[in-house]
Amino acid sequence: MADTGHGAATDECHSCDGTATEPSIYQEFWGDARAQMERRDYAKALATVGGLTALGSLAAPLASLTRVFERGYSGPVYSDGVPLVDEFGERIEEGRLSEGEQLTVFPEPRPGIDRAPTLLVRFAEDAYGGETRMESTVGGYAAYSKVCTHAGCMVANREGQTLICPCHSGRFDPLSGATVTGGPPGRALPQLPITLSSEGYLVATGDFEGPVGPGGE
User: Which residues pair with 4 in a beta bridge?
Assistant: First the structure.
């Protein structure tokens, strides 16, 4: 557009000194109203393509966060003494999380995201109450299935202390046994009983204390 302004000023001076200079085809094109509309349409098209590309780049990580639990749980996967591990297979030591933090964990050996994904949270011990099974917590840690009990999506979001499923906005209170506080889920996320091993890392003392995923009402 800066070039357009310069061309217009040059044309005006040529008219003043009597020199008959035809504007170039480029000046005529850029000054034409229809061309301006075409340029705007072209810009819109580029913006649309760019937006679609950006959405495509987000699709894979988003799918991994909200992935539906694709099969029925055929547990037990956890059992007494099975260590909890992170996505890299590292065992969870007592000091791994601070109060208010959470982590997705799995039974060792890690079977993958489609089998027994678990939300490990840590809060002050006296913050728990309601439906929490305190005998299944240790050192401020509590563990719940990450599979939403409504449609089987991963409970991947959080707002304050509330766990939220991104698929249909199911809401769960981790301080009260992951009971439902909003949305369509019909029951709480089942709690996993945990304790500390003699070596100082978190282990299960059994399997989930309820059905995993949708169904099992």
Answer: none
**pLDDT 10s digits, 101-125:** 999 999 998 766 667 899 999 999 9
Q: Identify the H or E element spanning 16.
A: helix 2-17
Measured distance CA(205)–CA(179) in Å, rounded: 21
How far is CA 41 from each of CA 35, 47, 48, 107, rounded to the nearest angstrom? 10, 10, 10, 54
CA–CA separation, 100 and 128 (whole Å): 12
Token code pair at residue 65:
């966060």
- Element of type H or E holding 65: helix 33-66
Rounded Cα gap, residues 101 and 215, in angstroms: 29
- Take residue 104 and report the two structure tokens written for it: 């997705």
Which uninterrupted H or E stretch holds 106? Answer: strand 102-107
Is the CB of residue 122 less than 8 Å from the CB of residue 140? yes
Overall pTM surpassing 0.90 (yes/no): no
In the block, which residue shows the tokens 């020199």?
A: 19
pLDDT of residue 9: 41
d(CA 119, CA 131): 17
User: Going by C-beta distance under 8 Å and a sequence separation of 6 or more, which residues neighbour residue 139?
Assistant: 94, 122, 125, 196
Among residues 78, 147, 145, the alpha carbon closest in space to that of 107 is found at: 78
Q: Are strands 179-182 and 157-159 parallel, antiparallel or unpaired?
A: unpaired
Distances (CA, A) of 208 to 9, 79, 142, 147, 151: 78, 9, 12, 12, 18
Distance separating alpha carbons of residues 156 and 65, to the nearest angstrom: 6
